[in-house]
Input
Amino acid sequence: MEIHEGHIAIAPPPGVTAWDVDPYDAEILADPVEYYRELRAKGAFAYIPKYAILACGRYAETREVFADNERFVSSRGVGLQDFQLQEPWRPPSIILEADPPYHTKTRTVMARALSAGAIAGLKDQFERAAETLVDELLEKGSFEAVTELAEAFPARVFPPAVGLAETDRRRLLDYAAMVFNAVGPDNELRRAAMAKAADVVPWITEHCKRYRLKPGGFGRAIYEAADAGEVTETEAGMLVRSLLSAGLDTTVAGIGNALWCLASNPKEYEALKRDPALVRAAFEETLRFTSPVHSFCRTAQHGTTVAAIPIPAGAKILCVLGAANLDESHWPDADRFKVARRTAGHLAFGTGIHGCVGQQLARAEIEALLKAIVAKVGHIEFNGDPVWRPNNAIHALDKLPLVFRAD
Ligand code: OVV
Output
């Protein structure tokens, strides 16, 4: 058995095309649509010699792998590294990187903390914060939408919702950059993100503690499950860490990508202004069209087959959610952004038992923001070229110069 990038190096299974590509190449990460198309064209799976893994990007097989947590486990890590073979950079997440039955327990606690009821109580706060921010940006006219909007909005509303007494936007974003780049190979992106560990990790660990969290937030809701004996105090801290890992950068990406979609498709923005009830659909279409989490891996626990392709035990499978969400055999006019599209079944939040537990929170944030934008902003225009920021798991913008006009 050969080990490569921390996982079992598999041989190409019969019937699978080898493709000499690096899915974590910075240029592909910044502009992935052609790579997505080629991946789908290779078949149900492609073999990637550079990492000795399989990759899938067609809708059906990507969904099948993600939906089957028994054959395709998360406890061995959702990146290239197999946690059975190599020690991960941090203690594994007890929800993302766990399987049932343990996962069922932690997921139940997290799902309750992030329940519809808990989120409904934040709606007014989110809407007020959105109106204030959009007014400020209209006042400025032109602005850099990644820092001043996509980051600014979640940075204002998410830490208070968690109950963080003290917030540090830079450290929270740097930590997320570590978490999401960590699922890739040991490339330049991963190393650059990890270089900040000594400064960022102790801060995160400290702010997951009970006494750092204010009553009424998601953090304390998790610690209440420890009081009830459902999880230990340590596990509660680990679940708060999951909130801080997955709760900020993802919504930053979603908001930036939504603005990019709307600025690139002025007719669709007009449709949204005519019918603001489409705000929710516009966000779902943004998720489908730009897949803020572009890919995660699973590990085949045993030998199995998918689409008649034999998959050996221990194989890492790169599930390219961004490619599945653009699969023309599943989505009519897949390469067009249409706010009125039926987007049910998109894989941007994953699917199955690991499907995004914070998705209602993400929707509540972006809907508050898009509602304020649609109500107040007549036109959204580029004020320079957008620049994408390569990341081993996140597809998001680095720079988005925009103009908001009231008329
Ligand atoms: C979905 C997700 C992404 C990144 C980190 C985590 C979860 C976590 O549980 O730490």
